[in-house]
Amino acid sequence: MNKSDLIEAASNYLVHTYNRPEVVFERGEGVYLYDTEGNQYLDFMSGIAVNGLGHSDPEWVTAVSEQAAQLTHVSNLYHTAPQLELARRLVENSFADRVFFANTGSEANEGAVKFARKWAKTHFHTNKTKIVAFTGGFHGRSIGALSLTYKEHYRAPFAPLMPGVTFVHFNDLEAARLAVDDDTCAVIVEPIQGEGGVNPALAEFLQGLRALCHNHHALLIFDEVQCGLGRTGQLWAHLNYAITPDIMTLAKPLAGGLPIGAILVTQAVADVIQPGDHGSTFAGGPLVCRAAQVVFDRINQPEFLQQVAANGLYLQERLNQIGAPSVKAVRGLGLLVGVQMDTAVAPLITAARDKGLLLISAGDNVLRLAPPLIITQEQIDTAVGVIQECLH
Ligand SMILES: Cc1ncc(COP(=O)(O)O)c(C=O)c1O
C-alpha cells in the first residue's frame, strides 16, 4: 500500500481514537525517523518518552532478535531467566524489595491500587480504600487508572469510575493534609507530571506527602511511568528529591519500545500478596525482559545519566534564549522539558514537523520535549533552531 492508501485504511479499519497527521513512518535509526517518502525527522518525542536509546539501537536489536529466536513467551506459570535477571536489576538498584511485571503503565497503576488496597485491608480496616490523587495527574486509561487521572475530558464519557478517589491541587500540601486521613490506603503522584504540563513536584510537597502517608498508615505511590528510568538525569525521578515511595510504577522506556510495565514494592507490600491475587498472561515475558535488560544496563551508568542531566540543562538554557513573547516559561528536569506558551501549541507542532522535527504537547499550551536520552548538544541546537524559526 502506498501512503495515501495507508491513510485511507486508517479511516476504514481503525476505531478513530487518534487524530494523526498525514505521515507514515517506516524506519528509525538513532534519534531519527524516516517516513515512506524518505523524509528524515529529528525525534524530540521518543514515542512519548519511550525510546530512551533511540530507534533500532544495535545492541537492543541483537538482544531482541536472539531472544525471539530462542524463546518469546511461556506465561507466568513458569520461570524464565530474562524475567528474573530484570527483576534482580530493578530491585538491586532501587528502594524496592520485590517487583511485579505488567504490560503498560495503566496496568502497572491498576496493580498498584490492588496492592495498596490489599495491604490496607490486611493490616487495618476494610474501608481503608480511599486514594488521594492530584490535579493534572495522568495515570492511564483503564477504569482504575482513569479514576486516578484528573482530566475531565478523559473521564466523563466513561463514568461511573472507581469510587473513593479524591483529587487535591498538585503541589498544595495544605490541601493534601485535609484530604489524607485514616481511611486513605494510598496517595499516588508523579514526581514530575508529564501529560499534565511537565510540572515538577516541589521537594517540600513530596516530603510532606511522605510524612502524611506515614502518619495515616497510607502507602505513597510514585508513578514514574514517564519520568522514571533516567529521563531526569537520575535513574529514578524521586532520587532528585531524596524521598522513597512504598510503591513505584514504571513502563514507557523500560523495554526500549516493547510493551512492559512494572510495579516495584517494599517487602511490607509484597508480604500481603499471595499466589492468585494478581496476574497477567503476557507480562514479564522473556522477549521484553531481555530487551529491558539492555535498556536498563545502558541507562544505569553514571556517565550516561550525567550526560542526560547536562543535556537537559543545555536544552532548557537554549530554550530560554529563544526570547519569543509567546514563551512564558521553560521548566522540567533532565530531558523532560515543557515550554509554557500563551497560545495553543498545535500549530507550532505542525510547523516543526513540516521542517523535520517531531514534538508533542502536554495539554493545550505546553510544548513537551522528550528526546531520546542519547540526544547530543548539536541535535539540541538543531531542534531549538527549528522551534525558534517556527515561532518567529
Ligand atoms: C505518568 C503516566 N502514568 C501512566 C501512563 C499510562 O501508561 P500507558 O499508556 O502505558 O498505559 C502514562 C502514559 O502517558 C503516564 O505518562
What does this structure look like?
- With 392 residues, the chain is an alpha/beta fold.
- The chain folds into 2 domains: 145 residues, Aspartate Aminotransferase, domain 1, CATH 3.90.1150; 229 residues, Aspartate Aminotransferase, domain 2, CATH 3.40.640.
- The chain contains 14 helices and 17 strands.
- The chain has a 7-stranded mixed β-sheet, with helices on both faces.
- Helix 3 packs antiparallel against helix 11, helix 4 packs parallel to helix 11 and helix 12 packs parallel to helix 14.
- The longest helix is centred in the first third of the chain and has 19 residues.
- It is globular, with a radius of gyration of 21 Å.
Brief rundown of the structure:
The chain is 38% helix and 18% strand. It has helices at residues 3-13, 46-49, 58-70, 81-92, 105-123, 143-148, 152-155, 173-179, 203-215, 267-270, 286-299, 302-320, 346-354, 377-391, and strands at 25-29, 32-35, 40-43, 98-102, 130-134, 165-168, 184-189, 192-193, 199-200, 219-223, 247-250, 261-265, 327-333, 336-341, 357-358, 360-361, 366-369.
Keywords:
single chain, 392 residues, alpha/beta, Aspartate Aminotransferase, domain 1, Aspartate Aminotransferase, domain 2, 2 domains, seven-stranded mixed beta sheet, four-stranded mixed beta sheet, 14 helices, 38% helix, binds pyridoxal-5'-phosphate
Average pLDDT taken over every residue: 98
Helix content: 25-40%
Specify the CATH homologous superfamily of the largest domain.
Type I PLP-dependent aspartate aminotransferase-like (Major domain)
> So what's the overall shape?
globular
Could you name the ranges where pLDDT drops below 50 across 5 or more consecutive residues?
Answer: none
